[in-house]
Design brief:
The chain is mainly α and about 375 residues long. It has three domains: about 10-120, no CATH class; about 180-265, no CATH class; about 275-370, no CATH class. The chain has helices at about 10-25, 30-40, 50-60, 65-70, 85-100, 115-125, 170-180, 185-190, 205-215, 220-235, 240-245, 260-265, 280-290, 290-295, 300-310, 315-325, 330-335, 355-370; strands spanning about 30, 80, 205, 255, 300, 350. The strands form three sheets. The chain has a two-stranded antiparallel sheet with strand order 1-2. Helix 2 (about 30-40) packs across helix 3 (about 50-60). The chain is elongated, with a radius of gyration of 24 Å.
Length: about 375
């Protein structure tokens, strides 16, 4: 476990840059709200989440650090969005400052002292387009996953080294391809390149080694860069990461990834798209995961659904709850349901299995009548 006591700012910033995919949202950025949310959650003993919680707390506890991460590439202007280039720029500035302090030439870098920003804005400026983002801030994704094996030859000259968080066009395309890949595709890729992630003496990949590989700079070497980008994408999907280090979805994570779980996930079908299901299909999914996701047999409250839908990072349970909440008409049908004797049920902001079965039967009967 990383001990940040006495660690210079550059070390904390470098840890954040390495862990960037974990905090990264759908927009491609890390928001300050996400950092705050991670810092506020309790420690649970989870080997994946707890180190990230501690890191978020450390960042927010250091005066000016979150402001620097936000505004380093924009003349101090803060918009609440932190790119990977911003994270690497902050590392550069902190290292330069710490080096200058050793030479008795202090340089201001906190949010209130613009000298640090201005001094380095020319040589270190990295526009977000260089990190794969268009002017709108939306991430550009490629529609097809690149299935080239890790050992397949690449044009070495086409790969340019990556400095300060910038990606070559080829690496940027590969990163986007990974973002479009299914969990099973990424698990297969991880299995094919298992030894690149430094398995321990028990042939297990640890979370530390996964973060170490993901945190390496991109150098232009097609093999190393591919593995690094794979590690970053896995860390950006906490749900996949949890499944990889657990024999079963309900098991407690132990921070270790084995070949057995990789093989199991590689053969799994794509995750269900709850939003595209019809009402009956969605209710069947709720019924099948009633106790697994809500821990009880009797009923599910609307309040517990709302809490599940707001969980971060999102999980299968999050998506299932959100899809149900997006259908207020169906929610009302579930709420009323039946008392089991043919009479109308009560509206009490909750529903049980009987109501789920009742609504499923009613919808199937209505469908059969045309």
């Amino acid at each position: 476990m990383m001990d940040y006591r006495g660690a210079p700012h550059s070390v904390v910033a470098r840890e954040f840059a390495g862990a960037y995919p974990y905090f990264q949202g759908e927009s491609g950025f890390v928001t300050r709200d996400v950092l705050q949310h991670a810092a506020n959650r309790p420690l649970t003993g989870n080997p994946v989440d707890d180190p990230m919680t501690r890191l978020a707390r450390e960042i927010l506890s250091r005066p000016g650090m979150s402001s620097l991460l936000d505004g380093v590439n924009h003349g101090g202007h803060q918009d609440g969005l932190i790119s990977l280039g911003d994270a690497h720029a902050a590392v550069d500035m902190y290292e330069a400052d710490e080096s200058s302090r050793l030479q008795n030439e202090p340089m201001a870098y906190n949010a209130g002292a613009r000298g640090g920003y201005e001094r380095y804005s020319g040589g270190m400026q990295r526009h977000r387009v260089e990190n794969g983002y268009g002017e709108s801030g939306a991430y550009t994704r490629h529609p097809v996953f690149d299935n080239r094996a890790i050992g397949q030859p690449f044009s070495r000259g086409a790969y340019e080294p990556s400095y300060d968080g910038r990606m070559s066009p080829q690496n940027n395309a590969l990163a986007n391809d990974f973002k479009c890949a299914k969990h099973s595709d990424l698990a297969t890729e991880l299995g094919n390149n298992f030894d690149y992630f430094k398995p321990n003496e028990h042939s297990k990949i640890t979370q530390n080694s996964l973060r170490e590989v993901a945190g390496r700079p991109l150098t232009g070497n097609p093999v190393d860069d591919r593995v690094t980008l794979l590690g970053r994408e896995i860390l950006s999907r906490p749900e996949l990461n949890r499944k990889l280090d657990s024999d079963h979805d309900v098991d407690k994570s132990d921070g270790l990834i084995g070949r057995d779980t990789i093989e199991r996930l590689s053969s799994q079908k794509a995750e269900p798209n709850y939003e595209q299901m019809n009402d009956v299909e969605l209710l069947e999914a709720v019924k099948g995961k009633f106790k697994q996701y809500w821990g009880r047999d009797d009923y599910i409250s609307f309040d517990s659904l709302e809490k599940a839908a707001a969980e971060s990072p999102p999980t299968d349970r999050t998506r299932l709850a959100a899809a149900l909440l997006h259908r207020p008409g169906l929610m009302k049908e579930l709420d009323i349901g039946t008392k089991g004797n043919g009479r109308r049920g009560d509206e009490d902001q909750r529903f049980d299995r009987v109501n789920v079965d009742y609504v499923i039967a009613e919808k199937k009967a209505h469908s059969s009548r045309g």
